[in-house]
Amino acid sequence: MNTLLQKLQDAQNSQELEAFRIEGLGKKGIITQKFSELKSLEGEEKKNLAKELNEIKQKFEAIYWAKKSQFQINELKTALLEEKIDVSLFQSISHRSIGHPISYTKDRIIDYFMHLDYELCVGPLVEDDFHNFSALNLPDFHPARDMQDTFYFKDSMLLRTHTSPVQIRTMETQTPPIKMICPGATFRRDYDLTHTPMFHQVEGLVVDKGDKASFANLKYTLEDFLKYIFGNVKIRFRSSFFPFTEPSAEVDISCVFCQGNGCRICSHTGWLEVLGCGVVDEYVFEAVGYKNVSGYAFGMGIERLAMLTCGVNDLRSFFETDLRVLEQF
Ligand code: PHE
């Protein structure tokens, strides 16, 4: 019995301790067996042995619990030391992703304009005809509605075909001066190598009193923005048409794949279109009840910028949720 108590006292770890506990107090343990011998005894003899056994049992348990808690503390300490994470350890950057190229590009665009104090605005994806079309100088019969294949619901509700309705909603609820951008999903009935039915745009709008907001401001802003996104590229403004801006322009950058020499991606023109923009049409201001103001607006496709900056040539790969694609960024 005493050797068992000594063994317990000398146990080196929880496993040994547990083995000795079973040896003493397990179902077939030495102490347990001695207790069962009590049945066959009587009188003084029984009393004395019972007392003795209970004392041993108490000693045994006291040693057991003292040792057990000591081992638990030590084991916890070593586990904490072994599993410690060294946050200063160098980790190869190639295993980390920038996130989805579309969110990454969107965040970069937002970052740029937030630094210039533009307000971040949002609007509904399900729009009414007024905000998506009429207020933007696209009345019912207007042929430009064909440019934007629309998903319609009942009662002239629709999935917004561009982020421009957010311009209208912002002007309806605020007074000039306004400086806002609105990133978000947009929808058109289109599906091929360069079009998906859902895509993302960022809209920008600046409105100021009198004639303070000019095409010159617009041009400077967009040139600086495109240099921020694409680095050292050539930029050109090409006259174009949007019903809600006059004059309107499309903005091209020199092809980032061939540096403007001409390749398949830029259809051998050396230029890539990246933005639409213009001076806000007087009719749009009339629709929201603004007088004596000037403004400019611009809109861009986030997927297009993401394809050009991340070197992706099939738009659909953005939406296939294939981790192997994302791991490359
Ligand atoms: N809404 C236009 C489009 O979807 C882009 C644009 C926005 C053009 C603002 C001019 C001004 O193509």
Which key phrases capture this entry?
11 helices, two-stranded antiparallel ribbon, 329 residues, BirA Bifunctional Protein, domain 2, 9 strands, 2 domains, 7-stranded mixed sheet, alpha+beta, binds phenylalanine, 40% helix, elongated
List ligands, each type once: phenylalanine
Q: What gross morphology would you assign?
A: elongated
How many DSSP-defined strands?
9
Strands of the widest sheet, in order across it, are 1-4-5-9-8-7-6
Q: What is the rounded distance between the termini?
A: 69 Å
Give the low-pLDDT segments: none
The CATH class of the largest domain turns out to be Alpha Beta
Per DSSP, what share of the residues sits in E-state strands of 2 or more residues?
Answer: 15-25%
Report the sheet with the most strands, covering strand number, pairing sense and barrel closure.
7 strands, mixed
Number of helices: 11
Name the structural class.
alpha+beta
**If you consult CATH, what is the topology of the largest domain?**
BirA Bifunctional Protein, domain 2
